[in-house]
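Students often ask why inverse folding is considered easier than folding. One informal answer: many sequences map to the same fold, so there is more than one right answer. In these notes we will look at a single instance of the problem. The structure comes first.
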């Protein structure tokens, strides 16, 4: 355990001593009910012990009663505590494996998810809105990438109510999860040796990792890639040598002088589309862990796809909030790039993949284009707020039991947050929405600065007029200088231009932007763009 983890554990113990918890009796719920019985055994960190599990779920909109016949699953499981720092929280995370009576893996398809046998129960001791993880995964899937599917549930463990959990898929190799080829431990050469692999930036130990040949700029820190699949115990020397060499070749191409060359540069090794999606989801959430740990990559066999993919995304309970650990994540105005995590001197350093990729104008343009498109859909404030509200409605009754079991509203738990701790669930939702709005406003201004679209207007420092209010959700106005005809031009970050006409009342000029989609726009009046003003529409 690191010193940081030990300090947090001691702090958590003190907090828990002074927080009162109340036992709850669960009789019915709008959420699925998960009952687990370990038959008197204590759940260890590893290995899994055998237990019984029943899942009661009567369908969307239906009430689930604790006495109902289990409709999703009833049978054996293997269960263990999972996670690193989260394993020390009072509401613990668990890894589950559904099994038959003989102890073999048994696949199930709960809540409409594809069949599998490995699952997770993620607690909400450090995440009080119940929305941060499922929202982040949903956004990544909306961008055409795989992320774990989820379902909020209430858990009863050995007869004791344990609160609201997120039942979700575990990250693993599977045709319906991370779809890479099954590894062949007997392969020493050829296509079978080239995949599939899942690896990550995370805590490491022993034989489960290999070290990058490149250190982050301005540091002498090692970057360790940790193997996730195949398991460390099954990882052969040939596979280790191959993957380490392939990552070395990829990083050499990225950090080499010809890194933008489409044939010999980094795009020969890295899948740009997945790296754009990973960047945008983690930057929108300003995820503290998105670069330094729980950061996954995967690679298939060369005959199928030789590129290294970014993802799946994972672990957002430290995201979508202000954490005063350093200037980046403690900023309360929505500012800061999470990919610059190395500026915070983290316990695990991030490889300089994004700082280098962003030097490629084509990659930067991909980010700008994708962000502009997403702001019209799943990155819009309306969509994000609707998703958060849907979670709040779903847990409307369950949250009361959860916060009686875990008296954590109004308290610091694991993550230190700026701006205080709301004493109500409604306050937590309001705080999250305010954070999202500030973050979108900042990204609307700063994402376009990553690239310079050829057709987009350039805003001079001495713009001839300044509009207000800015950001706006409708009308903008100014008191000086306007085209006497009232004709103005408005362009988005991709240079797409339309004509608008201003109205004049008592010397004030007004433009109505209420019909525009959320995003950043440039407005000018004389056709030359020399007096352009930047406006953020939300």
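Output (designed amino acids):
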């Amino acid at each position: 355990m690191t010193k940081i983890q030990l300090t947090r554990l001691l702090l958590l113990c003190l907090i828990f001593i002074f927080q009162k918890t109340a036992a709850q009796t669960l009789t019915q719920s709008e959420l699925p009910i998960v009952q687990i019985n370990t038959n008197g055994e204590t759940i260890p960190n590893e290995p899994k012990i055998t237990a019984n599990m029943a899942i009661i779920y009567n369908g969307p909109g239906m009430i689930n009663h604790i006495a109902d016949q289990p409709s999703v699953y009833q049978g054996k499981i293997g269960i263990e505590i999972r996670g690193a720092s989260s394993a020390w929280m009072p509401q613990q995370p668990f890894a589950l494996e559904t099994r038959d009576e003989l102890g073999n893996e048994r696949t199930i398809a709960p809540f409409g998810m594809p069949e599998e046998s490995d699952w997770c129960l993620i607690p909400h001791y450090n995440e009080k809105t119940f929305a941060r993880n499922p929202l982040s995964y949903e956004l990544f899937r909306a961008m055409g990438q795989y992320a774990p599917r989820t379902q909020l549930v209430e858990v009863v463990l050995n007869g004791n109510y344990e609160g609201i959990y997120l039942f979700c898929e575990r990250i693993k190799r599977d045709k319906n999860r991370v779809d890479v080829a099954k590894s062949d431990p007997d392969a020493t050469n050829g296509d079978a040796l080239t995949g599939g692999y899942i690896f990550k930036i995370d805590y490491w130990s022993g034989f489960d990792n290999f070290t990058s040949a490149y250190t982050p700029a301005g540091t002498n820190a090692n970057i360790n890639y940790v193997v996730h699949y195949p398991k460390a115990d099954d990882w052969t020397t040939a596979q280790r040598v191959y993957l380490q060499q392939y990552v070395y070749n990829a990083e050499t191409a990225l950090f080499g002088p010809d890194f933008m060359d489409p044939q010999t540069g980094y795009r020969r090794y890295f899948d740009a589309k997945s790296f754009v999606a990973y960047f945008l989801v983690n930057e929108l959430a300003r995820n503290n862990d998105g670069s330094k740990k729980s950061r996954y990559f995967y690679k298939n066999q060369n005959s199928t796809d030789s590129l290294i993919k970014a993802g799946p995304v994972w672990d957002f309970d430290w995201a979508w909030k202000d954490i005063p650990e350093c200037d980046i994540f403690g900023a309360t105005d929505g500012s800061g790039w999470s990919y610059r995590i190395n500026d915070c001197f983290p316990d695990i350093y991030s490889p300089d993949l994004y700082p280098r990729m962003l030097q490629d104008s084509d990659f930067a343009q991909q980010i700008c284009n994708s962000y502009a498109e997403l702001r019209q859909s799943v990155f819009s404030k309306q969509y994000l707020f609707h998703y958060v509200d849907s979670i709040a409605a779903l847990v409307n009754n369950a949250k009361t039991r959860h916060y009686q079991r875990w008296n954590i509203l109004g308290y610091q738990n694991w993550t230190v947050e700026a701006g205080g701790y709301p004493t109500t669930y409604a306050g937590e939702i309001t705080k999250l929405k305010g954070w999202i709005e500030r973050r979108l406003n900042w990204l609307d201004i700063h994402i376009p600065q990553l690239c310079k679209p050829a057709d987009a207007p350039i805003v001079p420092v001495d713009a001839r007029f300044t509009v207000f209010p800015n950001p706006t959700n409708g009308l903008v106005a100014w008191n000086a200088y306007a085209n006497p005809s009232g004709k103005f031009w408005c362009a988005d970050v991709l240079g797409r231009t339309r004509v608008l006409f201003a109205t004049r009342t008592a010397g004030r000029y007004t433009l109505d932007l209420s019909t525009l989609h959320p995003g950043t726009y440039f407005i000018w009046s004389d056709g030359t763009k020399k007096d352009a003003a930047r406006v953020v529409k939300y």
